[in-house]
Design a protein that fits this description.
Blueprint lengths: L12 H10 L8 H21 L6 H8 L3 H7 L3 H25 L7 H18 L3 H6 L5 H22 L13 H20 L4 H26 L2
């Protein structure tokens, strides 16, 4: 397939201004400053679990962190910039987790077990990462978070295609798996979010997780069997 030339897009002054308002006011370079920013993000993640995104305010963050509001504004111009930073940190941890699967080449003949391990790893991360569900359940309130989430899901879909390429014998190119892997990512994300909300009912939560694994394996097996007919 011929490469499509990318059209150069000029960014308006209004868009540049919007982007600057969503980024760190200054990037911490010294160890103490980096630790301060990480501390603030830890506080915000915990507050997200307590009060949610809408009730979160910069005053509440500063109060809980025990710092003057001016110190908070040294690094973050507004609440949305703070949420963006927390969201980016979440996704960095997701990416770090999935890269562990590529450190050791998986045995693709045991692909069903690989599906189980992958879902268990995502489930553990969703469960253990503070503020994850409040943040991403309300991502549609912030177009910037929607964009970050979309790009990250594309990256994870690439990873899934790399991980499972070769399991479906008749697929000769990794690109043939891209739509399929994107569906697997989006479905898993949605079901795992529901799984987290139902954790108080352990039987239901366990059932949801098991059904997700069954669904993904049946989906892949459909393509495996289709090629043998």
């Amino acid at each position: 397939m011929p490469k499509i030339a990318k059209k150069k897009v000029s960014i308006s002054s209004k868009q540049k201004e919007k982007n600057s308002k969503l980024n760190l006011r200054k990037s911490p370079s010294q160890k103490r400053a980096i630790e301060r920013v990480e501390y603030i993000l830890d506080i915000v993640a915990d507050l997200l679990d307590e009060v949610g995104t809408e009730a979160l305010t910069t005053n509440l963050i500063a109060q809980r962190a025990g710092i003057p509001i001016g110190s908070l504004y040294q690094y973050f111009p507004n609440k949305h910039a703070i949420l963006k930073a927390v969201g980016q940190r979440h996704l960095e941890r997701v990416n770090s987790m999935i890269m562990n699967f590529l450190d050791t080449p998986p045995n693709k003949t045991e692909w069903e077990n690989l599906v189980d391990r992958l879902i268990d790893a995502f489930a553990q991360l969703y469960k253990s990462e503070p503020g994850f569900i409040p943040m991403w359940s309300n991502k549609n309130l912030d177009p910037e978070l929607v964009s970050i989430d979309r790009e990250n899901n594309r990256a994870i879909a690439n990873f899934i295609a790399e991980l499972f390429f070769g399991v479906i014998p008749w697929m000769k190119k990794k690109e043939e798996m891209m739509v399929m892997s994107r569906i697997m990512v989006e479905v898993s994300d949605s079901v795992l979010s529901r799984w987290l909300r139902e954790r108080q009912d352990s039987a239901l939560a366990d059932g949801i997780l098991q059904e997700l694994k069954t669904m993904l394996k049946a989906y892949m097996n459909y393509y495996i069997q289709r090629g043998s007919k």
